[in-house]
Design goal:
With 88 residues, this protein is of the alpha+beta class. It is 26% helix and 34% strand. The protein is built from 2 helices and 6 strands; from the N terminus they run βββββαβα. The chain has a 4-stranded antiparallel beta sheet, with helices on one face. Strands 2-3 form a two-stranded antiparallel ribbon. A hairpin with a 5-residue loop joins strand 4 and strand 5. The longest helix has 14 residues. The chain is globular. The protein starts with a strand and ends in an 8-residue tail after the last helix.
Length: 88
């Protein structure tokens, strides 16, 4: 999963092999916004966009899941007896 951050509330169009996609970053407090995605096609399109490293930046590239987070998610599911996966 890659996480991108902007210092503004950002919305833009990117070109993918299947056509254009509209991407909206999720607004955060203090006027920033983030976008988290596991889609490799979208990641590539975002990093080719002219605004990359100007209007928005890559802040995290976690291609391998952290075992402690996975362990904590499974523990939370057992404690709450919820069969749905925990979202972080």
């Amino acid at each position: 999963m890659r996480i991108y951050r902007s210092n503004t509330v950002l919305s833009l169009n990117v070109r993918t092999p299947s056509g254009q996609r509209h991407v909206t970053f999720t607004p955060q407090t203090l006027g920033t916004s983030i976008l988290m995605t596991e889609d490799a096609v979208l990641q590539s399109a975002l990093e080719r966009h002219p605004a990359f490293n100007r209007r928005f930046f890559l802040v995290s590239d976690d291609s391998t899941p952290n075992p402690s987070v996975c362990r904590r998610a499974r523990t939370d599911e057992r404690e709450h007896r919820d069969s749905s996966p925990a979202l972080f």
